[in-house]
Write a structure and sequence with these properties.
It contains five helices and three strands. By secondary structure, it is of the alpha+beta class. Strand 2 and strand 3 form a beta hairpin. The relative contact order is 0.20.
């Protein structure tokens, strides 16, 4: 989500977790003010929200920087990009909107 918004269905596909579990965790992040959500038909899109408070924003930036160096996060990001760019999308993603960062690259 650091590059834009993403639909929950991509998290389900990439992480191999259930939609209710992922949605529950995203709801925790939304309540904490770290992400925002927007509905587009049946799809829910999430994006990171930068806190207005400079100290909170710095903490978020540090956490995101640390995660970007994590090997598992790098593998998950690569899987997301493969899923988005595949000539044949996995069945659960056939009608899903591409993540925002992928739409800007097309």
């Amino acid at each position: 989500m650091t590059d834009g918004e993403i639909c929950v269905c991509y998290f389900v596909e990439v992480l191999g977790e259930s939609q209710p579990k992922i949605s529950r965790h995203l709801a925790y992040l939304r309540k904490a003010g770290i992400v925002s959500a927007r509905r587009e038909g049946k799809w829910i899109h999430y994006r990171i929200v930068r806190p207005a408070d400079t100290h909170q924003a710095r903490v978020l930036d540090c956490a995101l920087d640390a995660m970007s160096e994590d090997r598992q996060m790098q593998r998950d990001r690569a899987m997301l990009e493969r899923a988005c760019c595949a000539s044949r999308l996995p069945p659960p993603l056939h009608d899903a909107p591409k993540p925002e960062f992928m739409r800007t690259r097309s």
